[in-house]
Write a structure and sequence with these properties.
alpha+beta
């Protein structure tokens, strides 16, 4: 059986999908990722919504954590809580770098645990999509799904410095390539041109694996 604490093994536990959408007459891309965790649904929900547990696998959070309230992750996205139906559905706006998208997380019983479905919908930037494709966002979400799984399984947090070092090493390069190829395949299945999707995979893998210049 695959080890859920191994990033490369955990990558194989995620089902990925890319769809086209529309909001307010504007074209969007919808990224979907699903993974089953060996944990009770109430525990997964608490890890996703409890401000004391969120920093253990993601980032500290502040704000008014009620429907209609505004939240803010430290050094990350913020937005408005649009829906919160415990322990099943959480929907928020996802505002970062001057742009806004929409995030929904759905939980349901499944297999030997809890199925988490993450749906991230964003307006299409054609030039950015052609250059990096869905991997620009998808690889980041994959990392968080792994971080959540590691925390649920071990009650421990991933070491950020060790993770960054691993990602820029040979195993991290294999991991990024695996994820990039998976998101590229999802984009092709969703209607993207195969050659453009493969070129975008190469670009996003390089982005995630080349160490920053000093």
């Amino acid at each position: 059986m695959s080890d859920p604490n191994d990033p490369i093994a955990a990558a194989g536990m995620v089902a990925r999908e890319i769809r086209t959408g529309e909001r307010g007459g504007e074209a969007t891309k919808v990224l979907v990722a699903r993974r089953t965790y060996r944990a009770e649904q109430t525990d997964v929900w608490d890890a996703l919504t409890n401000p004391e547990r969120l920093p253990r696998w993601f980032q500290p959070i502040s704000g008014d954590l009620e429907v209609g309230g505004r939240y803010q992750f430290e050094a990350q996205a913020g937005g408005i809580v649009e829906r919160c139906d415990a322990p099943e559905t959480l929907a928020v706006t996802w505002e970062f770098g001057g742009g806004m998208s929409w995030l929904e997380v759905n939980l349901s019983p499944g297999g030997d645990g809890t199925v988490l479905e993450l749906v991230h919908e964003a307006p299409v930037d054609p030039a950015m999509w052609r250059q990096y494709g869905p991997g620009a966002v998808g690889i980041g979400w994959d990392g968080l799904l792994h971080s959540l799984g590691f925390y649920l399984a071990t009650a421990s947090s991933l070491d950020a410095e060790e993770w960054e070092a691993w990602m820029t090493g040979p195993e991290g390069a294999d991991y990024a390539r695996l994820l990039g190829d998976a998101w590229g395949a999802a984009a092709i299945a969703g209607g993207d041109d195969p050659e453009e999707a493969k070129a975008a995979v190469d670009a996003v893998v390089a982005f995630y694996t080349v160490p920053p210049q000093a």
